[in-house]
Design a protein that fits this description.
By secondary structure, the protein is α+β, with helices and mostly antiparallel strands. It has a single domain, classed as 3-Layer(aba) Sandwich (Glutaredoxin). It contains eight helices and five strands. The radius of gyration is 19 Å and the shape is globular. The two termini are 37 Å apart.
Amino acid sequence: MFYRTFISLLAALSLYACDANANKFVAGEHYEVVAEKSTSKPEIKEFFSFYCGHCFAFEPFAHKLSKNLPQGVELEKVHVDFLPAASPEMQAALSRAYVVGKNAGQGEQVAAMIFNYIHRQQATFTTDSDIRNLLLVNDFDAATFDKNFNSMPVLSAAAKMKEHQLFWSQNRVLTGVPTLLVNGKYKLKFDKLDPENFDAELKELVSYLLAKKD
């Protein structure tokens, strides 16, 4: 009897939490609806650039968010190449470097190396060798980099990033970075989140949108 009562209470609290979030987050204010249908599975994409100062500032929040997603949901980082700070070719090379790191289980570390190089050290990449040297100085395995940087799987993954970028840019959804898209349908509006409670509200909003039904 006690067990059934306890389970009923949990269910009621769960429904209350969902209703509270539904009332708290409003379409057009906290997020935009940018597509008619959601993806078949819950997903979240972060469009970003290593050359973007706002993306650099957002990294700690993205990192924390990635550790608090529902089981089976991954924060997919999509590097773009349209910032004026560097050529599209150099930005595409950084996309490949990130993919190499991610495939080696060191995506966060490689991203931190590149962000710090650009924004803290105020340094500039001019060739692919500059990228290689940065990773190796930070103890990334040289053989892993050399084997994979121009490999078909890495080139394919970078091309997929470009494909996502073009699709959402052409649909006038991706107009700047960082941009978070949930379930291929909802675009978050960061400016409406409480700056004093940004971490918690970001997590709540993402959780709400991941579970939201069409």
